What does this fold into?
Amino acid sequence: MSKGSDNPAMTDSGATQETSDQEAGLSLDMATVAAGAGLGGMVAMTPILAIGILLGVLEPSAFAGLSEIVGLGPSFLIGTVIFVGGGMTTLPLLFVSLAVFLPGATLARRGVSFSSIIWTGFAIAFYSEQTGAALAGYLVLTLVSHWAYGYVLGVLYDRYAAVPQYEV
It folds into this structure.
């Protein structure tokens, strides 16, 4: 800790404070990288979800339901934008906050652990009364799509962010 007047961490009282990224928490750089990693994860997830829609095991109306929740009426396009937005903001920031506590030796594996957890919410929220083989296809395809999302999220975040390491 330096004690000069040119120290940007100096307070009005003249005392200095540590301002490292690890102590400051989530920095803007970390959040930006997380959003980019989330976008990469969404790109990896999309073709698998599209296969589910084409096979008839995932209903497009489930995405339209997201736009209804926010009062914009049923719109697949708006629902998809909301879904991708969540995959680029909320979920990556949650991953960054929780990754150190998740199982897995690498951030890619921790991303898969994280995505397995969030998949449970997706599976319930996007369920549209599938049964039999359609239900099995829905569960398998959506789980695999989430694993792709989590893996890419972890790989990209590990590659481009300075990740603090803690002993837990």
Remarks:
- DSSP finds seven helices and no strands in the chain.
- The helical segments are 21-24, 28-55, 60-69, 76-88, 90-98, 107-125, 132-160.
- The two ends are 26 Å apart (CA to CA).
